[in-house]
Amino acid sequence: MFENVPRAPEDSVFRIGRMFTECEDPLKVSCGIGAYRDNDGKPLVMDAVSEAKKRLHENPGWIHEYLPLGGHASFLKGAQKLALGDELYAEKSAEGKVGSLQTLSGTGALYVAGKMYSKFSPVKKALISNPTWGNHNAIFTNCGLEVSKYRYIDESCTSTPKLDLSGFLEDLEAADEGTLVLLQACAHNPTGVDPSQEEWMKVIEICVRKKLVVLLDNAYQGFATGDVEVDGFAIREFVKAGADIFVACSFAKNMGLYGERIGALHVVTNDKESCLDAVSQMKIISRTTYSNPPQFGALIADTILSDDKVYGVWKEQLAVMSERIKSMRGLLRGYLEAETGTDWSHITKQIGMFSYTGLTKEQCIHCREKGSLFMLETGRVSMAGLNEGNVERVAKVMAASIKGE
Ligand SMILES: Cc1ncc(COP(=O)(O)O)c(C=O)c1O
């Protein structure tokens, strides 16, 4: 049977990661994968995570039993509170209108949401942004959905990417009632271009009026502005507008728990019974896919979310990390403007972990081959890979690729 299996293409993000590892240039820079690095270019274990692990090892009231099918209950409460904010959480949880499943990070949450929709929705269509995170299309196609794209980036200015609000809204208007719409709650990957709060309200109005099924991908809460409350804006406004929504949350980026695969899929509904029904079915999907979720990441995230002191330490460091990325935006823009003499203000207007530079595929390959700068061939740069020691050189490599030098 295996003789008939065709070789699958390598994942574009992991391919760039592999090429970076194989590169022997001591000046090489990794701006491919979306993982935070400190100013020395090193991976970071957040202080709150170290504190949580210390507490867990000092007081091991836990053993290696299976978690319940739905996951770690206290972690899930904390995750709901983080997504919804204290007030909405109090209201919705008292009414039994928010329910959750612990998932294999954000990807697992998106998959379970896609499966839920494909099992129970009479419409089998998903709408994702153009462009979007590479895995969205594959996940929803895997779930048996017909995937199409809504306009997101203005095609008339690809070298200085900005939001195509009218195209975005028109495509939502044109969607069939009941279509699953994937929206990134904040820090849009790969573009770093988010709607303003005013623009979000227009998106929400259409989604609610057109009865679209909203799935908010919340992979970067806290990374966009440094403030988890501000980054929760879209989720909370959808709930206030009375929409039934899915929220797929990841703690990979904002807690730096990438490999622990810790996430949550929330549903917020308009009545208690449908919330219970939805969660019961989400458990069936996880049971038949990977049985139940891993424990250690849940214990760490729960310690952070449920202890005021550790939570405070976490929020503070998240703000510092996001500030470091912002300062890299300023430096990169300045060096690029000096090198090219053109406007690079889109770099500082974009937010979150990524910048959509506007470089063409050929220019990205040029950066890699001539300058050992590893970025995605779509022009996406992970800003977390930049630091005071490499940002000037990165700008020079990018500028050289534009000039064809
Ligand atoms: C937009 C977006 N959604 C979801 C994810 C899922 O991440 P994970 O499964 O590691 O939590 C990512 C990861 O890069 C992402 O960029």
From TrEMBL:
The keyword Lipid biosynthesis does not apply. One of its GO terms (molecular function) is L-aspartate:2-oxoglutarate aminotransferase activity. It catalyses: L-aspartate + 2-oxoglutarate = oxaloacetate + L-glutamate. Residues 32-396 form the Aminotransferase class I/classII large domain. It is an enzyme of class 2 (transferase). Its EC number is 2.6.1.1. Keywords: Aminotransferase, Pyridoxal phosphate, Transferase. SUPFAM superfamilies: PLP-dependent transferases. It comes from the Eukaryota. Belongs to the class-I pyridoxal-phosphate-dependent aminotransferase family. This is Aspartate aminotransferase. It comes from Triparma columacea. The lineage of its organism: Eukaryota, Sar, Stramenopiles, Ochrophyta, Bolidophyceae.
